[in-house]
Design goal:
Shape: extended
Distance between the termini: 151 Å
Strand content: 5-15%
Number of strands: 14
Number of helices: 23
Structural class: alpha+beta
Helix content: 55-70%
């Protein structure tokens, strides 16, 4: 197709608008019902005299439940997707995948724009079954949601877009937006600056008229126009000013041996007529032609391009330009874009009928509350109007109330049956995206099997619908990853993420989206809370049957199901376990030493609980290996295992000194007791084999007497060690008690000495004071005698 003729694209745009008008009318009816509009039009109310015209909001409620399932499925996980690669060093692939997933998902989770894009996607999917989004430029990673009416797709286009030759987007630019796109020094060279300047002057003229200013003094000063637009960007970007409406065309082109999509932007000359101040004005084409008259000699602007990429390809795939999400419930294949049937389509008819039925039902209810009287004349009617019905009141004999038996009675059972059937139909139609949680409407308690069967049925339906959404969402995630790997991107989030990935060791040669597989994160229960908790409880019941790593994943999913907080689930159950602690590392070394026959003393100042648990795991693993091998171990290995058990007892004794850990100590003792029983079983089997060896002789395949002697020596040594350990523990306890009593006696003697010293010091102080007082008295007497002698 020739994409160099703007007139041809203009005609295609007109064809798109005509073909989409009827589809738009149908979508408008669905949107009205979903927005709570009443079922009867104003003309029907006036013609038929309807007294009640309300929407019972059944459809908005069902769509809300479906959106909640979608949002729960896509927004609840801690990250949107996981990246995996099969390239690079094998031992670092998991690390690279974890780094790339974290650094790309971090800005996505923090972006309110992307959150709103996902919410808009869920709303459009439930309402119309199609949710488009478009990227503004080659660098920005976050797509912007687009209305279905603004995406122009040719008829007969199949889902998957294998036969899509071209498509268009309806865009509206304010003067300020268009200026930002075209006045940058690094702007795309495809902009037609001559036409853009005329568009900006036209937008400026229209805006200044709204502001009440006279633009003519600036006609001969173009730089003032630019400054005014920049200075008043708030007004120029508001919804009060006229916009520059365009068709943004993308077409498949394979010229010059290169396949890809080219881009053209033309003006929209087919907008509907508008009204200003109640007066009709010309259509958009005539209105916008005013700016082309401002400069003489210019050709028709609608035959020119606002933007053209020429033969340069702006994208290799439509996935680089647009993102589409589908929730198609159509039953006819092959599935086509314009034949998508949504949940809103399935609900519209029955919800609209239900609204009309409820309006009539409520009219009947109000009518039943009315009081009617039989009258023979207008005088009787006047008397009836003046009648006051109060307690113990009286009425005229001529006034005859109409009894209930003589009034028209609606068929209540039929009405209730109709409402119930409509409600059931709505629930069945909506069950593909939301769960009908009204179990037990028959007021009978259901068994666990019945509840599980209903839950499985709902899970299957909801999962089937969301699985389709997950698959389509995967392609958007691929494009987001591609944009985050773009080396010269102007997007700040992309620059930061790339720097972090390189700093953490991800090779730059792996930062291409072709090297990665992207898998969306899926929640249990397909977004339904009840089913999610049911599945989580079931998996927790089976958790002990899984390997350690799956156990951690199950526990994390269960925490997420209960809390709905991905950050808390990651904090409580991290995806990557905590690194090995020094106590765990030392315990592994101790076990190796004990197995080799080396005596190891108990170390103080360590985490004894971690040491006990590590040694118990090692002991249990070794014993299980012996049981699997036929219930036999080598005598030397048996001695090492018994040494580990004895070493564990010493640590348990230390932990037992803390009374708060009594329950933990009992649990450790029970586990160790079971393991020691297995060790005794090994020893008994070895002894039996030794006896058979001794009875049958060396030539009958029994144990060698030397081995039997080693076994007995090992058992005796283990028994002796256990007795010595017990005696040592008792001795240490007695020694500690004696040391404590001796320290108490020493403290008492020291205290008595301090008291005696304090008393002696006190007596000395008192004596010194007495001597000082006596001396002062003597001196005073001598002074008095001397003074008397002088007087004489």
């Amino acid at each position: 197709m020739n994409f160099d003729d703007a007139r041809l694209l203009d005609q295609l745009a007109y064809d798109f608008l005509l073909a989409g008008y009827v589809r738009g009318q149908n979508r408008a009816l669905i949107a009205e019902c979903a927005n709570g509009w009443p079922p009867y039009t104003d003309a029907e109310v006036e013609r038929d005299g309807h007294k009640i015209n309300v929407n019972d909001l059944s459809m908005p409620r069902l769509l809300h439940d479906a959106r909640a399932s979608f949002n729960n499925a896509f927004l609840k996980p801690g990250q949107f997707f996981t990246c995996r690669t099969d390239m690079g060093a094998k031992h670092k692939r998991d690390l690279y995948g974890s780094i790339v997933s974290k650094e790309i998902n971090r800005p996505m989770k923090k972006s309110i724009q992307y959150m709103e894009s996902m919410r808009a996607k869920g709303a459009l999917l439930m309402l119309h079954g199609i949710s488009p989004a478009a990227w503004e430029n080659e660098d920005r990673w976050c797509p912007r949601p687009v209305g279905i009416e603004d995406v122009l797709i040719p008829s007969q286009t199949l889902l998957g877009f294998d036969n899509l030759p071209f498509f268009a987007l309806r865009r509206s630019f304010t003067g300020y937006e268009l200026q930002k796109l075209t006045q940058d020094a690094k702007r795309n060279p495809g902009w037609n600056l001559d036409l853009v300047d005329r568009l900006l002057r036209w937008a400026d003229q229209q805006t200044t008229q709204l502001m009440g200013n006279n633009p003519w003094p600036d006609v001969w000063a173009p730089e003032k126009i630019q400054e005014r637009i920049k200075e008043s960007s708030g007004l120029y970007g508001s919804d009060q000013v006229p916009t520059i409406d365009c068709f943004d065309f993308y077409g498949w082109n394979d010229t010059k041996g290169e396949e890809g999509w080219v881009r053209r932007i033309i003006l929209d000359g087919w907008s509907n007529p508008t009204n200003v101040g109640g007066k009709p004005v010309t259509d958009r084409r005539s209105d916008m032609n005013d700016f082309s008259k401002q400069t003489k000699g210019k050709k028709d602007s609608f035959r020119d391009f606002v933007f053209s990429s020429g033969n340069r390809k702006v994208a290799s795939s439509w996935n680089n330009l647009m993102s589409f999400q589908f929730a198609d419930l159509s039953a006819v294949a092959p599935f086509r874009y314009h034949s998508v049937r949504s949940l809103g389509f399935l609900l519209y008819s029955v919800c609209h009928l239900q609204n009309r039925m409820r309006c009539k039902f409520n009219e009947s209810v109000f009518e039943a509350l009315m009081q009617y009287f039989q009258v023979d004349s207008m005088e009787d009617a006047q008397r009836a109007l003046k009648l006051e019905l109060v307690n113990r009141g009286f009425i005229d004999k001529t006034i005859k109330p109409v009894p209930a038996g003589e009034r028209w009675q609606p068929n209540v059972n039929l009405i209730e049956l109709g409402i119930e059937q409509n409600t059931r139909l709505m629930g069945q139609n909506a069950s593909s995206f939301s769960q009908n949680s009204e179990y037990g409407q028959d007021k009978q308690e259901k068994t666990a099997t019945q509840v599980m069967a209903e839950t499985n049925q709902q899970t299957a339906m909801v999962s089937a619908a969301l699985s389709q959404a997950y698959e389509y969402q995967k392609w958007e995630y691929y494009e987001v990853v591609r944009r985050f790997f773009r080396p010269n991107s102007k997007d700040k989030d992309v620059q930061t993420a790339r720097a972090n990935m390189l700093r953490q060791g991800v090779p730059e040669k792996l930062m291409v989206y072709e090297a990665w597989d992207v898998e969306p994160e899926r929640v249990m229960g397909a977004g339904n809370k009840t089913m999610e908790l049911t599945i989580a409880n079931t998996l927790m019941g089976w958790r002990d049957k899984f390997d350690p790593e799956p156990q951690r994943a199950i526990l994390r999913d269960a925490v997420l199901a209960v809390t709905d907080d991905a950050a808390k689930a990651e904090m409580l159950v991290p995806e990557t376990p905590v690194k090995v602690t020094p106590s765990v590392h030392d315990a592994s070394l101790v076990a190796s030493a004990l197995l080799s026959g080396v005596q190891v003393d108990v170390q103080t100042g360590i985490n004894h609980i971690e040491t006990i648990e590590t040694l118990l795991k090692i002991l249990a693993t070794k014993i299980k290996a012996g049981v699997d091998a036929g219930g036999m171990v080598e005598p030397k290995e048996l001695a090492g295992l018994q040494a580990i058990a004895d070493h564990i007892k010493k640590h348990i004794a230390i932990v037992a000194q803390d009374k708060a850990e009594a329950q933990r100590v009992k649990q450790y003792g029970d586990i160790l007791g079971k393991l020691e029983n297995e060790l005794k079983g090994f020893a008994q089997r070895l002894q039996e084999m030794a006896k058979k060896q001794a009875q049958a002789g060396n030539g009958n395949g029994g144990l060698d007497p030397k081995d039997a002697a080693k076994i007995q020596a090992t058992m005796l040594t283990a028994k002796t060690k256990a007795q010595i350990a017990t005696q040592s523990a008792a001795t240490r306890t007695v020694q500690k008690k004696m040391q404590f009593e001796q320290k108490m006696l020493q403290d008492q003697e020291k205290h008595q000495q301090q008291v005696q010293q304090a008393a002696a010091q006190h007596e000395a102080d008192i004596a010194g004071k007495d001597l000082e007082v006596a001396s002062n008295i003597g001196r005073n007497r001598l002074k008095s005698l001397d003074s008397e002698g002088g007087k004489e």
